[in-house]
Amino acid sequence: MIAALLLALQAPDPEGVAHFESRIRPVLAEKCYACHSARAEKLKGDLLLDTRAGVLKGGLSGPAIVPGRPEESLLLKAIRRADPELKMPPKEKLDDRTIADFEAWIRRGSPDPRTGPLRKDETPLWSLQPIRPAAPPAVKNESWVRNPIDRFILAKLEEKGLSPAPEADARTLLRRLSFDLAGLPPDGPASEPYEEAVDRLLASPRHGERWARHWLDAVHFGETHGYDKDKKRPNAWPYRDYVIRALNEDRPYSRFVREQLAGDVLWPGSPDGIVATGFIAAGPWDFVGHVELPETKTDGLIARYNDRDDMLSAAMSTFLSLTVHCARCHDHKFDPIPQSEYYGLQAVFAGVDRADRPFDPGPGVALRRKTLESEIRALESKLPGPELARLDAALKALGARGESPSNGWHSAIERRPDVEKWVEVDLGRVVPIDEIRLVPARPTDYPDTPGFGFPVRFRVEAGGTLLDATGEDYPNPADRPVVVPGRTARVVRVTATRLWKRKDDWVFALAELEVMSGGKNVASGAAVRSLDSIEAGRWGRKRLVDGFDSQGPLRDPAREARRESLEAERRALVESRLDPAERARLAAARGELAALPRPSLVYAAAPRPSRAIHLLSRGDVRRPLRPAEPGALSCVPGPAFELGDSADEGARRAALARWITDPRNDLARRSIVNRVWHHHFGRGLVETPNDFGRMGAAPSHPELLDWLARWFLENGESLKKLHRLIVTSAAWRQSSQPSPEAARLDPDNRLLSRMSRRRLDAESFRDALLAASGRLDLRMGGPSDEHFRFKDDHSPVYDYARFDVESPSARRRSVYRLVVRSVPDPFFEALDAADPSILSPVRGATLTALQALVALNDPFVLSQCRALAERASKAPEPVAEAFRLALGRSPGPDEARDLGTLAERHGLASVCRALVNSNEFMFVD
After folding, report:
1. Three-state SS string across 135-148, please?
2. So what's the pLDDT on residue 2?
3. What's the pLDDT at 202?
């Protein structure tokens, strides 16, 4: 038995693990977990099969397996069903091949990568343990300590026989502080008292812009969808502005988190309640999988599971630093997260889509709208309930056009315009035709292109030619149907003789072809023939006569008449049941409501009825095992996920938001204080901000991390207080110059024996150029600036080469540029900007020749160098002025001489170019 236990404690061999993952775990999940897992409604026989420890421990009958000894393993006896008392699974015997797989697995030592306490490396995970309050340690060098942070840092240094680096000089500190808190070069005097500079920068609106960029990286915010049809999101920017505003206001962190997960539920009267849920919609989105493929199709269903995976991954990684998404296909291999709990989180987001949502930007407007709507409801409540309800229900049914499953019919694509294409509708019998209606397309992948595919020259035939527009170009009708008088006929044909230009090719397309006879559309559902056709996604011959244009159901005159009749009936009911004063108040309220500014739009979480979510075998949508109930993670100690009696969509997100921000959830505070520390020091106390699990890094100063997390909670979860605590510490104010002892004993600076020297990130480098040149536009908020030429197409075109770097839109802070997923800006890409398609808590730090070429030769850099030279040329000593504007100090004698020679030979702009490429400009000490 000892030998078997030792075998069980060995690291699993790769082939054995592969065998377990492909042959064993799926069978356990499908056949056993319902009765023998932590999520089972009633655990049978006290036997857990969802962890390695549970299998080895066994249940009431003893260990389920003995590694290396199949003949002694009760699990194998049970699935062989040789013993009447051990018939498993209870309903049907496993096939012989599966039983042989289990025997082979046990014989080779039962390799199993799942978590469990029997493995030596699986001591309790540090991040999932409650905080143990500890006082800052005593240190020898008391004079160095400025605040409690320093005691934790110094204690580790003294333990290694190291001393901290001396404090940096005032100019270096001010530059470091300015870039750290505001992302810009200093604009205050070097003589300014340090703590006054801290408070000034924390109060500056530039602070929110700087730290919003860090947050937007972490949540993979982008303003296009990504994937192959990377459409723009013109209304994504309000979420960016919300983050800036919340950080500038120093909104308590728990409120910040709750707003982003469920602000529309928890604060329905606040404009930020809706806008903040842009967090849920911040990531990439598969346009084809959602728009062109229905949820009833396998690929459409996969797209929606992927979408929810993105939402829960962002929430769990950002707020808790856990890689929950690793449990999508099986139990997490390293952390105590079962697959069932992953799908419980999927169920939390089961009622969320992404879409543009209306909101009132001003709280006054939002409050007034709510007040007026309440007043109108109160007045109308005096009306007979059943009658009013009947009319409102009927009007609602007639209201929205709904969605369209169709774009229409689309010909094959041609390389030239003068190719003849035709499509015809066979009505099945000869009928008198009142009129023929050619409905133009506006497909979902070309939402800004009315009249898509409508032929430039064409003719319409039905028992003869009814319209001949082949002699000259026909004006594009946009969204207006082209109506052609008819005659008696059976077949209606439309022939294009000159096609519509799409990109560098030509097509013929229609959303719908209607044939009206006796007030009815007799073409509905009729047979369609054509020379050729694209039969894919939302296009096809049947789509030409399905009763939908590209936007929704076709408009019905009878339906419009019915609406007008119902509205008149409703007005008459109001007039008859209210007294004159009440009628006047109602009319005034309705008039004021109609006069309020129209709501703005934000791309955010769009609630809908929750879908049914299933735990999937191996993550395969074609192999659902059982329904998943909304829930959180059992491995996080302290808070409970409390959904209450309500199971609606909003209640689920609100419950998750409360669970994450519960004061007992130490993991949430550890996560955020580590993120803040990372951006102040260039590396977190935990180097993997999104992974506090077993595969992440261990904390370098675990006691300090816990102390900060508790301090943060006790100080109102104020991020600005946390910033102030960190930047006023002696640890943060150290010089970046290492001592010989530090270089030897702390080469990678994990003990923080000095400050780490850091290169400016892409945004700070660009903004510093604008600040030096005097061109920086500090306007805040609003739609993002596009640093490219854009062309909407089947796959949109983002052309950065054609952007005018002299344009006003080039002068705003970089946080306000429109971030494209599929085609990154070459300037930002070269300088290691974050990839908006993935969660990016840490920026890359590469050193390439391309970076030097960009910093020297990019048109934007050259433009700012010319502007800096022009600005400096107005001073009595232009070279010295350019030096001061770029580097914040006066040049030394040798620097002035060398740069003066460069200016004489190549001009002042070349001097500026050299300055902005210097290490002193590009790095922060």
Report:
1. CCCCCCCHHHCCCH
2. 41
3. 98
User: How far apart, in whole angstroms, are the C-alpha atoms of residue 323 and residue 334?
Assistant: 10
pLDDT per residue over 77-98, tens digit each? 888 887 777 788 887 888 888 8
* pLDDT at 569 (0 to 100): 81
- Residue 356 CB neighbour total at 10 angstroms: 15
pLDDT score at 11: 45
Give SS3 for 345: helix
The yes/no answer on whether domain 409-548 falls in CATH 2.60.120 is: yes
Buried-state track 53-73, b at ≥16 Cβ within 10 A, e below 16: bbbbbbbeeebbbbbbbbebb
Q: What is the reported pLDDT for 115?
A: 52
Give, rounded to a whole angstrom, the gap between the first and last alpha carbons of the chain. 60
Angle among Cα 538, 541, 544 to the nearest 5 degrees reads: 75
Provide the b/e sequence for 396-417 (b: ≥16 CB within 10 Å).
eebeeeeebebbbbbbeebeeb
pLDDT, residue 803, reads 93
Q: What are phi and psi of 577, to 5 degrees?
A: -105, -10
Q: Pick out the chain residues at pLDDT < 50.
A: 1-12, 116-122
Q: List the chain domain ranges.
A: 2-119, 252-354+610-709, 373-401+560-606, 409-548, 859-924
Q: How many residues does the chain have?
A: 925
Q: What is the pLDDT of residue 123?
A: 58
Q: What are the tokens at 488?
A: 């008696």
377: region left, alpha or beta (phi > 0 left; psi from -120 to 50 alpha): alpha
Going by their DSSP bridges, the two strands 409-410 and 482-485 should be labelled as unpaired
- The pLDDT assigned to 119 comes to 37
**Cα atoms found within 13 Å of the Cα of residue 301, Cβ hemisphere only:** 14
Q: What is the pTM of this model?
A: 0.75
DSSP one-letter code for 496: E
Closest CA to 791 of 779, 799, 781, 801: 799
pLDDT of residue 36: 87
Secondary structure (DSSP) of 530-558? ES----BTTBSGGGGGSSB-SSSBPP-HH
Report the greatest alpha carbon distance in the chain.
104
Residue 7: per-residue pLDDT: 43
Helices (H), 507-648: 557-577, 580-595
360 Cβ contact list (under 8 Å, min separation 6): 271, 366, 369, 596, 597, 599, 600
Burial class of residue 644, CB neighbours in 10 A (0-12, 13-18, 19+) = exposed
Long-range CB contacts (within 8 A, 24+) of 141-145: 144/730, 145/730
Q: Closest Cα partner for 376 from 594, 569, 598, 600?
A: 594
Taking only the tens place, the pLDDT of each residue in 278-326 is 999 999 999 888 887 888 889 989 999 999 999 999 999 999 999 999 9
Contact 369, 333 (CB under 8 A): no
Nearest to 823, CA basis, from 222, 327, 145: 222
